[in-house]
Amino acid sequence: MMFCANPTAQFKSHQTEIEEAVLSVMRSNCYVLGNEVEKLEQEFAHFIGTSEAIGVANGTDAIELALRALEIGLGDEVITVSHTAVATIAAIEAAGADPVVVDIEPEFYSLSPSQLEEVFTPRVKAVIAVHLYGQSVDLDEISKFCKQNDLFLIEDVSQAHGARYKGKRLGSIGHVNCFSCYPTKNLGAIGDAGLITTNSAELAMKLRMLREYGWHNRISEFPGRNSRLDELQAAILRVKLKYLDESNEKRRQLAEYYINHLAELPIQLPKIRSEAEAVFHLFVIKVNNRPEMMRYMLERGFQLGIHYAVPVHSQAAYKDRIRTAKDMHVTDDVAQKIVSLPIYPELTTLEVDSVVNSIKAYFGK
Ligand SMILES: *Cc1c(COP(=O)(O)O)cnc(C)c1O
Predict the structure, then answer these.
(1) Reduced to 3 DSSP states, what percent helix, strand and coil does the chain have, rounded to the nearest 5?
(2) Cα(191) to centroid of ligand 1, in Å?
(3) pTM of the entire structure?
(4) pLDDT digits (tens, 9 = 90+) for 21-76
């Protein structure tokens, strides 16, 4: 069976190096927040183009701690999208703030800047721009709105490690930016991990304190959390970071192959923003007859995915409880029709071709 992602394949392509890195951590006498975490933080900051990177336990914590570091919490509102991983919304509430969601752009499936004005209130303190599927949001428009209203911009880069907007890496533009390194992400650990980037030394210091009980010299100066990153995951991420650009390039080539070979079919293919370089965390198409198509593909050995089937504002935990823009029709429509095809760096052209041929066969081509 072929799936949308394949984290084992990535382990296998760097197996010796990863096993050596893991062994060396196990033989050391430091397992949490040590040398490996420190080196990863330096290397990741250099890669993204920020002065600081901070390792944390996962991507949800990265967002929660970013909000806490900016002193956003009880009584504050944070604008984001409903078409995202639940984690984005859960993190806002974990920080004590209230999420407000807007619709997405029909071509790119990312935050629609046109509704920001409509949902704005004096309680709004930040916008979380989610770079979904490996592609940048409209950063110029969103940044402009944040500047005009004196809001913090937080990038959620959990699906776009290494992608660019106007030549700059995503995660280098917002005030504080958050990455998940869950195993299936473009930069994935073998377990949970997260990273935060910023150009503020002051915020970085606060974030390092927040991830460990608010400690300064082992005394809590303010209430914090335990969201430490362990040495094993940091060592694994350091190996994988070296190959990130290369593996993103492979994803782009596979995406191009899909785009070229599926062009004639009655489906909506991903569109790439001209100012951006995408890294295809997912390859998402829109079809009218999703259940039937997914069943057809499953019978032929392809377990396709849906990211995401129910908008967050319609899920039981949040329904009738979080504030939304008046018109959410793109989000609602997309949730019914999107399908994710297999895409990961180790996928061979032969394998992609087998996916393409089955989709064509489904459409009678
Ligand atoms: C994966 C993901 C997260 C959450 O990360 P975890 O490491 O699973 O906590 C947040 N936002 C987006 C857009 C994601 O894809």
Answers:
(1) 40, 20, 40
(2) 13
(3) 0.98
(4) 999 999 999 999 999 999 999 999 999 999 999 999 999 999 999 999 999 999 99
Q: Could you give the angle at which helices 231-242 and 244-261 cross, rounded to 10 degrees?
A: 60
- Each residue of 276-326: pLDDT tens digit? 999 999 999 999 999 999 999 999 999 999 999 999 999 999 999 999 999
Residue 194 CA: which ligand 1 atom is closest? 7
Summarised one tens digit per residue, pLDDT across range 167-202 is 999 999 999 999 999 999 999 999 999 999 999 999
How far apart (Å, rounded) are the C-alpha atoms in residues 176 and 173? Answer: 8
Query: CATH number of 2-102+110-241: 3.40.50.12780, 3.40.605.10, 3.30.70.260, 3.40.640.10?
Result: 3.40.640.10
Q: In this structure, what token pair is assigned to residue 41? A: 């933080």
179 CB less than 6 Å from ligand 1?
Answer: no
CA of 362 from ligand 1 middle (Å) equals 32
What is the CATH superfamily name and number for domain 244-362?
Answer: Aspartate Aminotransferase, domain 1 (3.90.1150.10)
| Cα 86 to ligand 1 centre (Å) | 8
Q: What does the pLDDT look like over 255-283, one tens digit per residue?
A: 999 999 999 999 999 999 999 999 999 99
Q: Which residues belong to CATH 3.90.1150.10 in the chain?
A: 244-362
